[in-house]
Structures are given as C-alpha cells and as structure tokens.
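Course assignment 3, question 2. Fill in each field.
Student: A.L.
Task: Predict the tertiary structure for the chain below.
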Amino acid sequence: MPVPPQQFRDIFGSFPTSVSIITAMDNDGMPRGFTCNAICAVSADPPLLLISISKTSQTLPAVLSSRSFVVNFLASSGVEASNVFAGKGQDKFAGVRWQPSDVASGAPILSDLALAYAECRVEQTVEAGDHLLAIARVDGGSTFPRDALLYCRGEYSRRAGLAAVS
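Answer field:
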C-alpha cells in the first residue's frame, strides 16, 4: 500500500535539493515559469535531463507547445524569486531581468539569479501520476561562480564550494 501524500512529501523533503526555476514562452509570447526541485541528469551522451511538471502548472502548456524550456539553477541570492515562482501569481516576471534563449524558443534565462542554466528541447514526455515528465536534450547553457541555493525540510540554505570527501 502506498504511503500517504504528506508522508511522501516528508520523506523527499528530508534531503537537500537544488532549487531551479523552469521557464518557457507561451503561444502569446508571454514568459511562464515555476519553481522546481525535481530535476535529474539522464544521460551525458547525448546530454539529456528530466524535469517533473505538475499537470496543473500554468507553465505546462508553454512547455508542451514550444517543446522547449530553460532550467535556471538558482544561486543563493534567488530565495525571493523561488518563492514568487512557487506561487500561482500572474506576473511572476515583474521586476525580474531576463534574456531570451536563442536555443529554447525565447524561454527566459535568469542569469542574474542563476549559478547555471540549461537550454533544453523536449525529446519525450511521459505521464506519471499527477505530473508529466519531460525528457529534454540540453542544447546550450552556462555556469557562474556563485553559491548554490538548496532546500531541505521547508527551509532554504546556501552551499559554498563543495569540499571533496575521501
């Protein structure tokens, strides 16, 4: 028998995850985005990643119609943006500087808030419960020398350079 939804959230909220904002452009040329921590590297050759998108997300139609998106991995300065993009507000991009991706159909790149970004084109989608999994090829991206924003047990933290464990 499956665990109840709250227990499931408690289990997966017990370990630190990166925080990202997934962005895409809708059919009307409007930017869309949501906060996401369900991202996974799938393959290095070809470079593929996977994101999980709620079927009720206001960004899902933009990802499906454009068949592209940008994963903006947030730097430690991105807490406020993470909270804004986690909500259902209509104008999440108010006051947020962004550049359109040449690779991902104009999807917003949040380079002021990111420690890295990946410009992606959707290769495949899979229905999974109340979410859709999008497997995408990474066709562009960049990194910046910033600390990472992490989320664990309902709280944000930052992580400076990681020390090797031997």
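Instructor remarks: The chain has one domain: 5-159. The chain has a mean pLDDT of 93.
Grade: pending
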